[in-house]
Amino acid sequence: MIAAATRPKYWSVSTAFETLAAWFLAILWIAPLAYAVWAAFHASEHAINFELLAPLTLDNFREALSQAPFLRYGFNTFVLVSMLLVSQFVICTLAAYAFARYEFAGSNIAFALVLVQLMITPEILIVENYGTLAKLSLVDTITGIGLPYMASAFGIFLLRQAFKSTPKELEEAARLEGCGMFGILWRVYVPLARPTYIAYGLVSISHHWNNFLWPLVVTNSVETRPLTVGLGIFGAPESGVDWSIISAATLLSVAPLIVAFLLFQRQFIQSFIHSGIK
Amino acid sequence: MRHVYGWLLLMPAAILLIGFTHYPTVATVFSSFFSKGTVIRPSRFVGLGNYESMMADPIFWEVLVNNLWFAAGTIPTSIALAIAMALLINKALPGRTFLRMAYFTPTILPMIAVANIWLFFYSPDIGLIDQILSLFGLPGHNWLGDPATVLPAIIVMTIWKEAGFFMIFYLAALQHLPPELEEAAKLEGASRWYYFRRVIFPLLMPTTLFVLINAVLNSFKLVDHLFVLTKGGPNNASNLLLYYIYETAFSYFDANYAATLTVVLLALLAVMALAQFFILDRRIHYR
C-alpha cells in the first residue's frame, strides 16, 4: 500500500514510453520477414515498388517450385532431421546414463573429452571430416550429413543433468520389481527426463533444419541436398534475380519451422531457455 | 562389472566423437606440417613452413582482422539490445506475446534465408534501403559492393538475427531475480536508470559472460551468409576465417594450408573454452 502511494509519477510516464519503444522495436524486428512474406505473394514489379494494394498471386511459388525441386529438398531435410533426432536420442541417452549412474574408471576424463565437441563442432573440421566420409563412401548421402552430429556433447550433457537429478530410490524400487539395466533406464530415467528430451529435441530440430556449411560440403545432388543448400544455390546471383520468386523460395524453405514455432511458441522459447541455462 | 557396463554404454557415442572430433583435430594439426601434394611432387614434411607462409599471407591477416571487427561490431550491440528486449518483455506491457514473438522469430530462421531476405534490402538502387534514401533525395549506394560498407552491412544483419537469441538467456535470468528488489528500489525512490545500473546489470553479469563467450564463438563459426551475400568479397573485404578455410580447401584444393588455418581457428576456440572454464565457473562476485 505504502509502495503504491509513494510511487513517483514518472514511473507511469516511463511505462507509456517503454510500450512505445517496445512496439517500435518489435515492428522494426518483424518488418524484414513481413516484407518477405508480402513480396512472395505479389508480382516482382509490384514488390520492388512497394505497391501495397497490388493483386495477390501464387505465381511466385509455382515459379520457384518449377525452377528447383524444393519438395524434394524438403523431404531430404525431413529425413535428415528425423534420422538425427532418433539417433541422437538413443546414443546420447546411453552415454548420459553411463555418466550419470556408472562411476566407471576414467569417466571424468571421458566426460571432459566429450565436452570438447561443444567447442569444436564438426563443421570446423570440414577438411578432415570430408576425408573420413570419403573413406566410408558416405559423401553425397543423407547419412553422411548426419553422421558427425549423431553423438552430441550437448545432448549427453543435458541428459546427464536430468538423469542425475532423478531420485536413486526410484531406481532401487524398479530393481526390486525385477527391472534390469535397460528396464530401469526405459521405465524410470527416460520418462522422468521428458522435459529435457522435448527441449533438446526442439533445439536439435531447429539447428539441423538450418545447418548449411557441412551439408553444402557433403552433398552434390538433388537426392541428398537439404533445403538450406538448395536455397543457397537458388539464391545465388548468377541464377538471375527475381525478388518475389526468391522470397517465395525462402518462405517455402522456412515455412514448416516457422509454423511449428508459431504453434508451439512457448515450448520453443522454454526449450531454448532450458538448454542454455545449465 | 560397472566399469564394463559404463564403457559399453558410452561406446557408440565415443566412437563417433573420436571419429569426427578428436581424430580430425589431431589429424588437422598433423597435416598442417606437410606441404601440398601434387601429381609431380608428393606431399612432404615442411615443419613450420605452412605457418611461415600463413604469416606472410595478407589475406590471412585480412580475414582475421575482419573477424575481429565482425565480433566487435555484432556482440556489444546485440547484447545491449538483448538486455533491452528482455527488460521490456519482462514487464507486463500490452501485446507482450506479440513482442516476444517479433524479437525471437529471426533466431529460428536459417542464416541462408536471412541472407536472401537482406540481399534485397542492400541491393543497389532497387533495394529497400536505397529506395528509402531516394525519398530524401539521397543517391543510391552499392552496400555489398563497396569494401567500406560491406562489413557494416553484414554486421547489422547479424545483429538482427542474434539479438533475440541472447534475449532468451536474459529473460531467464530476469525471471529468477527476487521481486523484492524492485519494491525496495521503488521505496527508496531510486530512478529507473539507477536501479538498472546498480542492481539489475550487476546481477545479470554471469548471464552476460555466458552470452559473451557464446557470441564470440558464433562470430567465428557463422559464415553461411557469405555464400549468398558476398562470397567474401569485394576483394576479401567481408571474408571471415572459416569461409577462407572453406575456400582454401574446396576452391583452391590446398588441404594442408586449410589445415594450417584451421589450427589457428582451433587455437582461438581453445582460448575461449579456457576463458569459459576459468572465468565463468569461478562465479562472479557481487558487490
What does this 3D model show about the protein?
The complex is a heterodimer of chains A (278) and B (287). Chain A is mainly alpha-helical and 278 residues long. Chain A has one domain (63-277): MetI-like (MetI-like fold, Orthogonal Bundle), CATH 1.10.3720. The model of chain A is unreliable at 1-9 (pLDDT under 50). Chain A has 16 helices and no strands. Helices cover 74% and strands 0% of the residues of chain A. The two termini of chain A are 38 Å apart. The longest helix of chain A is centred in the first third of the chain and has 32 residues, at 70-101. Helix content of chain B is 72%, strand content 0%. Chain B has one domain: MetI-like (MetI-like fold, Orthogonal Bundle). The N and C termini of chain B lie far apart (50 Å). By secondary structure, chain B is an all-alpha fold. Chain B has 13 helices and no strands. Chains A and B meet through helix 1, helix 2, helix 5, helix 6 and helix 7 of A and helix 1, helix 3, helix 4, helix 5 and helix 7 of B.
| Percentage beta strand of chain B | under 5%
- The count of strands of chain A amounts to 0
Q: Most extensive interface: pair and counts?
A: A-B, 97 and 95 residues
Q: Provide the β-strand percentage band of chain A.
A: under 5%
CATH architecture of chain B: Orthogonal Bundle
Number of strands of chain B: 0
CATH superfamily descriptor of chain A: MetI-like
Span between N and C termini of chain A?
38 Å
The total domain count of chain B is 1
What is the level 1 CATH name of chain B? Answer: Mainly Alpha
Oligomeric status: heterodimer
* Rg on CA atoms of chain B, Å: 24 Å
Q: Which class do the helix and strand fractions of chain A yield?
A: mainly alpha
Named CATH architecture of chain A = Orthogonal Bundle
- Helical stretch count of chain B? 13
Q: Report how far the terminal alpha carbons of chain B are from each other.
A: 50 Å
Shape of chain A: globular
What is the CATH topology classification name of chain B?
MetI-like fold
- In total, how many domains does the architecture of chain A comprise? 1
